[in-house]
Amino acid sequence: MKILAEAGRPGAGYAEHLRTADLSVGTYSLPAGAADGQQPHTEDEVYVVTAGRAVLWTPGGSAPVGPGTVAFVPAGEEHRFTDITEDLTVLVIFGPAEHTRRPG
């Protein structure tokens, strides 16, 4: 067992807290008004919003997110947080671990 004490707490940018062959866990933080420049990932992602408010955009649609929101983004899907109205902190779970798959 390992307790990820810093996971989901506000920080700056992205901080990884755990990495195994099958998954990785980190915290992604963006201040209000920021632009999210992330690119599609080669791994599936689950986002758990721990603080803040924004909109999660994908080509298929957009959804408001806030504390307690859990969202799944499949590998390869373009996505980003927009309209960040409150400092946003998101727990990110990648499966398998981030950057372990080669771009297709």
From TrEMBL:
<dbReference type="InterPro" id="IPR051610">
    <property type="entry name" value="GPI/OXD"/>
</dbReference>
<feature type="domain" description="Cupin type-2">
    <location>
        <begin position="28"/>
        <end position="94"/>
    </location>
</feature>
<dbReference type="GO" id="GO:0046872">
    <property type="term" value="F:metal ion binding"/>
</dbReference>
<dbReference type="Pfam" id="PF07883">
    <property type="entry name" value="Cupin_2"/>
</dbReference>
<keyword id="KW-0479">Metal-binding</keyword>
<dbReference type="InterPro" id="IPR013096">
    <property type="entry name" value="Cupin_2"/>
</dbReference>
<dbReference type="InterPro" id="IPR011051">
    <property type="entry name" value="RmlC_Cupin_sf"/>
</dbReference>
<dbReference type="InterPro" id="IPR014710">
    <property type="entry name" value="RmlC-like_jellyroll"/>
</dbReference>
<protein>
    <recommendedName>
        <fullName>Cupin type-2 domain-containing protein</fullName>
    </recommendedName>
</protein>
